[in-house]
Amino acid sequence: MPDTSPAKWHLAHTTWFFETFLLAEHLPGYKPLNPAFRNLFNSYYNAVGDRPLRAMRHVLSRPTLEEVHAYRANVDEAMELLLARELAADVTDLVSLGLNHEQQHQELIVTDVKYGLAANPLRPRYREAKMPPAESFAPAPPMRWEAFPGGVFPIGFGGEGFAFDNEGPRHNVYLQPFRLASRLVTNGEYMEFISDQGYGTAALWLSDGWDCVCANQWSAPLYWEKREGEWWHYTLDGMQPVRREEPVCHVSYYEADAFARWAGARLATEFEWEVASQDCEIEGNFMESGALGPQSVTDDEGLKQVFGDVWEWTSSAYLPYPGFQPAAGAVGEYNGKFMCNQMVLRGGSCVTPKSHIRRTYRNFFPPHARWQFMGIRLANGD
Ligand SMILES: [Fe+2]
Hints:
- This protein is of the alpha+beta class.
- It has helices at about 5-25, 35-40, 65-85, 90-120, 185-195, 205-215, 255-260, 270-275; strands at about 145-150, 150-155, 170-175, 180, 225, 230-235, 240, 265, 310-315, 345, 365, 375, 380.
- Helices cover about 30% and strands about 15% of the residues.
- The longest helix has about 30 residues, at about 90-120.
- The two termini are about 40 Å apart.
């Protein structure tokens, strides 16, 4: 699957980021362990130079893992020398970018490992299964609508500390009054969509979505399979029965959009999501919980599961905010050049490190992507 990369590649590439954008530029006398790595572990930066085709990353059996660890140790040592120096603000900003970049790749390691193991007919599990807590088998509370007033709202990052360039500039957006679902869409609700011939009803789908369903013969979320009449899905704990009360996960934008239409609702815009999230603590089922999968809610007050569990598809195309300017140089290719043909997702997932997420954080994927932990929250007019 061309979107996924081996864990060894992620380790080498995050190391490459520090070497290319910090050490090669800002540490006098820095000598690379192997100058060929500059191109070998480049992901998509045209200004840096050539790189292997993304879909061929999995055939890079050399350098070995041992050599990649040696590369990492060399770069770590040089980074310590760099950090001991007096550094200009633009250089320390690049260090922060390198660390946040690495957190993004840590999340990708989990999602890519899941895809790789699930593609194996033996469906090997990533770890020994842990028995979920008994309360997580309770039925999900009924979905409620939370109402939000319309008006003019500031959107985007305006605080201190790190944010990606795509989160700014902060600017005003006018919103009509809107309503957001109190919790994520559950597997049980999604099963009703499937039983109601959701995947067979063209009228529910965007044209591109219907083409995608037909071409790929989709009939359920990624990792779902029917065994003796019951839905099972691959999780990092191995194959498990699909539990109705848990949030549905591994659906594309097309599926989220079709489900919302079937339910008589819609998806939120990224601006509605950001305004509604102001009242929510940045707490939830993140990577640190160790669950490595979305979990059901048990209580029923306010908006639930806004942060963590699954990235929530929004109906917003991934576009530059007014006045957006990418950084000068190669690092300007980080976000800006992807602002076409992708949709924004918000809130982080069960494999996002908690310290990585912000209310203003904009993740983005093409509308057919399903291998990240992505799910659905419904919205509606007032
Ligand atoms: Fe990267």
